[in-house]
Amino acid sequence: MFAMTRRRPIEFLILNNPKPEGPPIGTFAGKRFAEFVRDAFGRLFVYSGVAPRRKDGGFDDAALGPGEFIMLPGLIYRHKGKATSPVARHS
Asked: CB under 8 Å to 10, separation ≥6 — which residues?
């Protein structure tokens, strides 16, 4: 027998209207990206890596860890909470 796993639709794993916080730390797909982003709900996220893709070209959502989301065009950001600024995490 095999276990059936129920996966969430990928739309639930994509950040909604993310805005960069802090200076850029790199470039991906021709666009600069910041270490931190804040989504439309005010939640703070920290850069975690590049989102892997499946053979069919879709995002491999099974590779995401707890609290990780995708920022299009394909970066992973991990939830950090509702800190007021990126500097707060260094205190």
From this structure: 58, 59, 61, 70
**37-83: per-residue pLDDT in tens?**
999 999 999 999 999 999 999 999 999 999 999 999 999 999 997 65
Residue with tokens 């995708």: 70
Maximum distance among all Cα pairs of the chain, rounded to whole angstroms: 50
Cα–Cα distance, 45 to 33 (Å, whole number): 12
Pair 51, 76: CB distance under 8 Å: yes
User: What residues have CB less than 8 Å from 14, skipping those under 6 apart?
Assistant: 69, 70, 71, 72
Closest CA to 18 of 46, 55, 52: 46
Instruction: Determine the pLDDT at residue 13.
Output: 93
